[in-house]
Amino acid sequence: MKSPRTEYLRPAAAEDVPALLALRGEAEQWLRTKGTDQWSDPETGERAIVKWRASIDEGRAWVVVGENEKVLATVSRGPVDRDFWTDADRPESALYLYKLMVAREASGRHLGTRVIDWMSRLAALEGRTWVRIDTWRTNTGLHAYYEQLGFKHVRTEAPSHRRSGWLAQRPAGEVALPDNLLPVGPHKGRRGEAATHTEVPHQRAEGQPNGDLTNEKGSTP
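Now predict its structure.
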């Protein structure tokens, strides 16, 4: 009989940067096979490392890990992107989801959906109304994926210096897989130590430095 899977979510740590860069590289290759130009300008080298470390240091980056602490997915939150959302959108009413990526080897485990559910519950815990995303304007497959998960298209913005701009939102607290929620570990445990799991962790809210999040939006569900 197979043992139950042990995926859980925890804050990203500096030691995760190589795994995150590998996840990003895999996502770029996979997206090219899907006929989309999303992430066609790869983020590599020192600049990418600096950006990941900023997200980690500011408490905005999270990873889903499996057996032996292998990174299977990542997600970040960040401040409102003013290229897209205006005062009329009541930006403080939403949690903004960025950099959702899932390893190809974890395909079929619904990790993308489960991570979004976690973000939705976190948004509700913080008293927010929405979980919001912006994705590559030309990635219609990704638009359909989010719509299947309950996101509603708000509008599409097309500033000349950006390729993202398909805006959507889902009510905070809404979950797609209530019987398959991700447990959460508050920190990266040392080898041999059991991780302490909680339901929804505390996390730093908006208002922190951006760390150039605006150049890396999207998902590889």
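Helices lie at 17-33, 45-57, 111-125, 140-148.
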